[in-house]
Design brief:
By secondary structure, the protein is an alpha+beta fold. It contains ten helices and eleven strands.
């Protein structure tokens, strides 16, 4: 229940939220993995009551065209504060992100989780950790971000599954992840809007394709739990979204081939794209990322190409009261 507005004033606080990759091939809309690239945000109270300034840094400078009140981080932050009885805070919010925007790494989910979590922290509440708190954040996040397979790992860390019960309520749960798997990411210098990627999907799929994906999902979860290289390619062999989205990403076909040639166990689209993500042995991950980046440069030019090897984040959103520098 919302608290009555009682003149509560927020304190200083900070949060850190990981990036995420979703789908992982056959896990369409139900599997997500937190990755160690981060959005950080800090609130400092002060100034005029009712005036909260927003400053974007890092990759978020690319969206400075978005007004503060249209920013999903800011909207989630303000709404959560109102729920907690803090209607008109005065102060400043600084958001810094190293998560590429529009490249399939859950930048929107990180922003929504960051806004909701920062509001809780500055109001004196803990970072959402308990199952009931996680379910509440998942429900709140749906107002701005429908892809809970990104929201859930950003909240919880690690490999996460999302399922809905008979009434449509989402449930998120941890899945085992082998430490022997490394991840390589690359993206061309173009974004792919999620709405465009969704529009490319068919309204119905053949029954055989659905059955295929069920078997592939069984292989995927086993491969991720055990680190079995031979099962990775089976698990990434999707028929529900990858074939329809791949043509929207310039250079992706070439990047897939380059990843395999460099030693990747398998490769797929990261989220809705435009980035792609490969699974490999830890000693091959950077070479795989570099090979995919080279393929993108050859296909579409060098401008804006992003690539890196990346480890899973196993913690999820973190935060605390006061300044992050002193925490």
């Amino acid at each position: 229940m919302p608290r009555p507005s009682n003149g509560l004033a927020p304190g200083a606080g900070w949060v850190r939220v990981p990036a995420s990759t979703s789908n992982l091939g056959s896990g369409f809309d139900c599997i997500g993995l937190a990755l160690a690239r981060y959005l950080t945000a800090e609130f400092v109270p002060g100034g005029t009551a009712g005036t909260t300034r927003l400053e974007r840094q890092g990759t978020l400078r690319a969206i400075d065209r978005v007004g503060d009140h249209d920013d999903i981080f800011f909207r989630a932050f303000r709404k959560r504060l109102r729920t907690l009885g803090i209607a008109h805070p005065g102060g400043s919010v600084t958001i810094d992100s190293e998560i590429p925007v529009g490249r399939g790494l859950g930048s929107s989910a990180a922003a929504v989780v960051g806004g909701l979590a920062l509001a809780s922290v500055v109001a004196g509440e803990p970072v959402p950790r308990e199952p009931a708190a996680v379910r509440a954040v998942l429900a709140d996040a749906l107002e701005w971000e429908s892809h809970l397979d990104n929201v859930a790992p950003a909240l919880m860390g690690g490999l996460v599954g999302v399922a809905h019960d008979g009434s449509g309520e989402p449930h998120a749960f941890r899945l085992p992840l082998a430490a022997s798997i490394a991840f390589a990411y690359a993206a061309p210098g173009v974004e792919l809007e999620t709405t465009k990627a969704r529009t490319a999907l068919p309204r119905t799929v053949p029954f055989g394709d659905a059955v295929h994906n069920l078997g592939a999902l069984a292989a995927l979860t086993t491969a991720l739990a055990t680190g079995t290289a031979e099962l990775v390619a089976l698990g990434l062999a999707d028929k529900l979204h990858v074939p329809y989205r791949l043509p929207l990403i310039p250079g992706a076909v070439e990047a897939f081939a380059a990843a395999r040639s460099a030693g990747a166990w398998g490769v797929t689209i990261s989220g809705a794209g435009s980035g792609v993500i490969a699974l490999a042995a830890p000693d091959r991950a950077f070479d795989v990322a570099d090979a995919m980046a080279a393929a993108f440069r050859t296909a579409v030019g060098p401008s804006g190409v992003v690539f890196f090897a990346v480890q899973p984040d196993l913690v999820g959103v973190t935060g605390g009261q006061g300044s992050r520098k002193s925490s």
